[in-house]
Amino acid sequence: MTPEIANTRLSDDAFAAERRGVLQSWPTGAAVDFGAGVARQQSLPESKRFSAALAQAHAEGRTLLQPRAGVALLREHTALMNGLSPHCDLLPTTVDAYTRLNRYEDAQTGIDRSRAVGTSLLNGFPAVNHGVDGCATLVDAVDKPIQVRHGTPDARLLAEITLSAGFSSYEGGGISYNIPYAKTVPLQDSIRHWQYCDRLVGRYEEHGIRINREPFGPLTGTLVPPFVSHVVAIVEGLLALEQGVRCLTLGYGQAGNMVQDIAAMRSLRKLAHHYFQDAGYDDYALSTVFHQWMGGFPEDEAQATAVICLGALAARQARVTKIIVKTPHEASGVPTLEANIAGLRATRQMVNMIADQARPDSADIAEEAEIIEAEVHAVMRRIYRLGRGDVAQGIVLAFEQGVMDVPFAPAQANAGSLIPVRDNRGAVRIFDPGNVPLPKDVLAFHRDKIGERAASEGREASFDMVVDDVRAISASKLIGRPAA
Amino acid sequence: MTPEIANTRLSDDAFAAERRGVLQSWPTGAAVDFGAGVARQQSLPESKRFSAALAQAHAEGRTLLQPRAGVALLREHTALMNGLSPHCDLLPTTVDAYTRLNRYEDAQTGIDRSRAVGTSLLNGFPAVNHGVDGCATLVDAVDKPIQVRHGTPDARLLAEITLSAGFSSYEGGGISYNIPYAKTVPLQDSIRHWQYCDRLVGRYEEHGIRINREPFGPLTGTLVPPFVSHVVAIVEGLLALEQGVRCLTLGYGQAGNMVQDIAAMRSLRKLAHHYFQDAGYDDYALSTVFHQWMGGFPEDEAQATAVICLGALAARQARVTKIIVKTPHEASGVPTLEANIAGLRATRQMVNMIADQARPDSADIAEEAEIIEAEVHAVMRRIYRLGRGDVAQGIVLAFEQGVMDVPFAPAQANAGSLIPVRDNRGAVRIFDPGNVPLPKDVLAFHRDKIGERAASEGREASFDMVVDDVRAISASKLIGRPAA
Amino acid sequence: MEQGYKVILGVIGSDCHVVGNRILDRALSDAGIKVVNLGVMVSQEEFVTAAVGEGADAILVSSIYGHGEIDCAGMRERCEERGAGDIVLYAGGNLVIGKKDWKEVEALFLDMGYDRVFRPSVNLAEMIAGLRRDIDLRRVPQLGHNSAAFDTGAPFLDAR
Amino acid sequence: MEQGYKVILGVIGSDCHVVGNRILDRALSDAGIKVVNLGVMVSQEEFVTAAVGEGADAILVSSIYGHGEIDCAGMRERCEERGAGDIVLYAGGNLVIGKKDWKEVEALFLDMGYDRVFRPSVNLAEMIAGLRRDIDLRRVPQLGHNSAAFDTGAPFLDAR
Ligand code: B12
Ligand code: B12
Distance between CA atoms of D62 and C44, rounded to whole angstroms? Predict the structure, then answer.
């Protein structure tokens, strides 16, 4: 069945009609006014514009740092942002998990109970409940560009509220904020809802306001082969460009093998330009973001800091524009301000120490990049074929048929047949491609690499090996070898 | 004037005569008995033999971790060792600074006052004062190989006591424990005293007891060009081999630029084998040790951990046998057990994560290794010429004439005319060679590299730049750039 | 005597973290325990309905994302309402917001009526051994032949 | 009015750490202060003899290696014995063993008779400005025209 979706720009009428419903879906929507939002964005100083910070860093070859952080109450959240600000370049506002699922009443319960007990009981900042005024107060109170970071399949109201309050960057996408974050949301619904968000950003762009958009790169953060997240990033980029977005940051979550991670960042830039330009776009700004290790962390804070440092190193060696920074509390829970600062300081120190050092280059990196490119091309080709040229239709069908498949994803829209495992050097390889149409030689390459590991461990590759890999970093290893 | 020293094996008679004086120099010397020492060493289980642990790690391609630690009192020191043991592979016993200068009475004051106030007022373990019995109690109480780490120009009595108590590795050397650690000790004296120590180790070796010997690689830890520490390591290796030492670990202190650090470790192994075999030795075991950053640390613990992690990474990438691990307290003071464990855990995590990853190799690394080799050959050639074939005489004359020259050394025996500075990528270069006879093309290479940096910073290279470099890591940078 | 063990497994609330759930499923199944895995984003209602419908011996609730304190409260009461007040009830994961003192977290969830509470670093093999014993004990509540093993609380179930 | 400043600089005891000493020498000299640098491993006797012999305005004692508590005690008394009881006496570095509470360390050394005590992270430019003022104050002890700047102790001299 052909999905009811197409990669075409939403018409002004359709958008307007939809908009009314969105703004009525929760009381705080009433305060949103597009003209006022534009005026407010115009009034922001350059120092609070995300796109400007990214452009400058890109031009100067610098790498910016951004933490994750969000708490339930406005005052506490503002204090948190201002505590982080001296240690980072870009501010986040991580949104709580109820808001992500549009459960604003539960979010309200969380706010109320947090007020009562005097500590945040929410895992993020419930921006919709705080409304335009609350968010604007926040934006006014901070001194750096600030972004909405979440995981929301239907993020339309959140976008309306936060952008009109002066946030200048918006994370997410119809695939990357569904597959890893949702269970039963149909993919075409989340894509359609994100077309709305992108169109909203496009409208700001048309009014001279550049809002940065960042598809969520790491997906499930767990043994995601680079080509998988690259395809998502490229497709979400294409969808965003079509709606008028012009400032994109594409992301990737550290896989742990440095050669593969550097190759991944290199190929991501190249592939994105390739597909964007093929689709006829040439007036966009592209930057990159590297997420420090997104899988399970070690509980010990010193060990966690080492994981953070390896990420900082790979990111800087790959010359990314931005790093999303983890904290030594990662394995335990939402970090304190202090833990967040520790992560930022360690990252800054590492980045600074290697900032001017030679950018690694080697035959391994080139080979790895070629593999990734071959994989992405194979899958993109099939997506376009499935969608008969329409990437929105294509991606929905691709997920339906397991042509695209994200490991360890909770979404029913995802097949879950692709099985990754590490090779003998720790690179993420394809143990079972499921239905993903990877070229034969590429699959043979993966098989050989996995074979090397199996031989060196004296055991067959199997799902046990995968489980060992998932738990390895927490157990102080990259590769889940059998106990010696 | 020809120095009264020669690289020849001490005769048994001369050794015996000297020995009487050494053992009488402080009351605890009386308890030393060589036969008893051999018997005790023989009784040690394999698991406490340093040489065995190194040989096994070398064979398996593993990298061992060793902390630094020492406190005034025996019971506290034993507890410290047992606290560290689960987190490391090799134990240290860092000796206090009074003992290093043979000021055993001051050490005794330190012990007594430490007892009185209930906390260590000494910066290490006063092994001579604790005597053979005290040290033997310690060795018995621990479960890993244990080494004496110090900085003692005349370490003869310390060696007699600790080796006869069961320590199975002994750090130091006549150059590396004089130039960075002393002020007025003539170089030929310290070399002569270390010939004694090496001869003592040689005698154990002849009795079937292999004691590991480790020249102190990092010297002053401050902008030391690799060739400088390599020459010292090679010369001390040659001096030790001549006295019968057969198990050597040569060291190097992280300079901060990864290409240079990896090249340094690679060339160190190669050069050592070259000179040792040229001198007719082929029956020795050689391993390597990498010291995490030995210069001033950042005060912040997260930043310090990042410095530690960069060292761990470079060390493992260079496939060294052993890493000497720093702690997040480095900038502040002698670390607590907890801080030491944190350093070890971070290091272990980093080493484990990259253990199986590809060993970096590149044209840069090869070029850097070639430069280092050319430098070492040029200086070694001159040393041999000055000593008319005798490396002991040669090195004394070389220091006298500034042919060998260690940056930032306190010793009057050192010229201090060589001035290092970082280049635009952070590698340590020669700004002024002083009297060190480096080849013209090598000097031109350094000049060009420094020129690149000067141009990029828009200032002339000068001692100010050097000062900026010295303080850079503490200020979160590798290179001391002018404030932007 | 040879009786099977059947458990309901799931991640409660709006929580999407599925990796631990998959690993728990695998570990329990490998140990011969029958697992009814409800996956992520499971409501209390769904847990209890499944438990009653399947006649399960235990419910293993995961909460990873931090809202456990809100999402997990009232579960025991809901079981009681549905006549399963006696079922073995476990909770585990990153149960509250932030890095909190474990003793407090454990007390909070024991108070809510969970029989045992687990941190992320739990040793699964030991947890499963304990689970069997807990289920056995409920089956023959009078016997209590090896109840001594449980007198001291659950620290041995935890890796740290 | 234009009077020079002359200080004795050195690292006390058995301490070999010379890097900070070289940097202090450079910073003081660059600021136009005459430095008599005794280098490392300087005894109290050597410090005081040099101060008296050179007619110095201040002694700047470094202790980096941790034995400062033992090595630095009694320095003020020794100055007094030699008729220089009034000299400006500074101490700085990693003054004690381990990472200790700074307030305690500072109090310990102020008690010993040091006028100011500095941690490694001291801002040298500010320290030098303060040094000039301290010397000026000793020179015209009655005047005290800008002594207010010193009422609050020395925290402003410290980078942290
Ligand atoms: C991967 C990951 C993600 C992925 C999840 C992908 C997916 N769909 O599974 C993504 C990126 C999507 C994600 C999103 C979010 N995450 Co998240 N995530 C993680 C991370 C890094 C690893 C989790 C993991 O997979 N671990 C590996 C598995 C094997 O371990 P496990 O989950 O702990 O499960 C084991 C044990 O806990 C135990 N166990 C679990 N349940 C039970 C139950 C019983 C009965 C027993 C006996 C044992 C048991 O056994 C399991 C198997 O060994 C953790 C931090 C960490 N642990 O390092 C944060 C973490 C869990 N996330 C967190 C948060 C807050 C979120 C978000 C809300 C975003 C945000 N605000 O930062 C969203 C969630 C939105 C939502 N609706 O749920 C927080 C939770 C904070 C807290 N509790 O205080 C954590 C701890 C990070 C942090 N320190 O802030 N996350
Ligand atoms: C390099 C170094 C060495 C080199 C020294 C080479 C040399 N000859 O100079 C070597 C390897 C030889 C060495 C040896 C030892 N070291 Co060491 N070393 C260091 C290290 C890493 C850096 C020191 C440095 O050069 N810093 C850079 C300079 C610019 O900074 P600075 O020395 O702090 O000086 C500045 C300030 O302190 C201040 N300042 C200093 N004095 C004064 C005085 C006044 C009046 C003022 C205003 C300011 C001021 O201004 C200076 C310039 O900015 C430090 C740790 C660190 N800081 O990271 C440990 C450290 C100083 N060493 C230490 C120790 C204990 C030793 C040893 C005893 C070995 C051991 N047990 O570990 C031996 C010393 C033997 C001896 N006889 O002294 C300890 C001291 C512990 C303590 N106080 O609790 C430290 C802190 C490491 C640690 N955390 O354990 N060391």
Answer: 66
B100 is catalytic: yes
CA distance B281 to B284: 7
Asked if the structure places residue A394 within a domain, the reply is no
- β-bridge partners, B212: B169
What is the pLDDT at residue A1?
Answer: 63
* Best of B334, B466, B476 for a ligand 2 pocket test (most atoms within 8 Å of beta carbon): B334
**Do A326 and A424 reside in the same domain of the chain?**
no
pLDDT at position B234, please?
98
Which H helix or E strand runs over B421?
A: strand B419-422
Chain B interface includes A323 (CB < 8 A): no
Q: B182 and B82 in one domain?
A: yes
Whether the Cβ atoms of residue B90 and residue B57 lie closer than 8 Å to each other: no
Given a contact cutoff of 8 angstroms between Cβ atoms, the answer to whether A290 and A322 are in contact is: yes
* Chains B and C touch, contact meaning at least 3 pairs of CB atoms under 8 angstroms apart: no
Q: Is residue A283 pLDDT above 90, yes or no?
A: yes
- CATH no. for D6-143: 3.40.50.280
Decide: C19 in ligand 1 pocket, CB within 6 A: yes
Angle at CA of residue A82, ends A77 and A84, nearest 5°: 95
Chain A, residues 107-166, CB within 8 A of chain C, namely 109-110, 113, 119-123, 151
Look at residue A249 and give its three-state secondary structure.
Answer: strand
Checking if the pLDDT of C61 tops 50, the result is yes
Query: B471 to chain D: which residues are within 8 Å by CB?
Result: 23
Give the pLDDT score at D139: 86
Domain of residue B482, CATH code: 3.90.970.10
Q: Do B349 and A258 touch (CB under 8 A)?
A: no
Domain extent at residue B437: 417-484
Cα nearest neighbour of A181 on chain C: C16
pLDDT higher than threshold 70 for residue A302: yes
Does A246 lie in the same domain as A137? yes
User: Does the structure show a pLDDT above 70 at D141?
Assistant: no
Q: Which listed ligand is nearest to D15 at the C-alpha?
A: 2
Q: Which of A303, A364, A477 sits opposite B358 (nearest CB)?
A: A364
Q: Tell me: the pLDDT tens digits for A61-95?
A: 999 999 999 999 999 999 999 999 999 999 999 99
The band of B483, judged by pLDDT with boundaries at 50, 70 and 90, is: confident
Whose Cα sits closest to atom 26 in ligand 1?
A296
Query: How high does pLDDT run on average in chain C?
Result: 89
Burial class (CB in 10 A: 0-12, 13-18, 19+), D31: middle
Q: Cβ D98–B335 below 8 Å, yes or no?
A: yes
- Largest Cα–Cα distance in chain A? 66
On whether both B220 and B89 belong to a single domain, the answer is: yes
Whether the per-residue pLDDT at C145 is higher than 90: the answer is: no
Domain boundary among A321, A354, A387: A354
Q: pTM of the prediction?
A: 0.96
Quote ipTM for the complex: 0.95
CA distance A135 to A163: 9
CATH number at residue A56: 3.20.20.240
First to last CA, chain D: 34
Least Cα distance to D112 among D130, D128, D96 occurs for: D96
Q: Is B301 on the interface with A (CB under 8 A)?
A: yes
Flag whether residue A12 sits within 8 Å of chain B, measured between CB atoms.
no
Which residue, among A60, A305, A336, would best test binding to B if mutated, counting the most B CBs under 10 Å from its CB? Answer: A305
Cβ–Cβ gap B306/A309 under 8 Å: yes
Residues of B in contact with A258 (CB under 8 A): 354, 357-358
- At B1 the pLDDT is 62
Tokens of B192: 């002569």
- Residue B47 vs residues A93, A342, A484, B51, B280: alpha-carbon distances, Å: 53, 38, 18, 10, 32
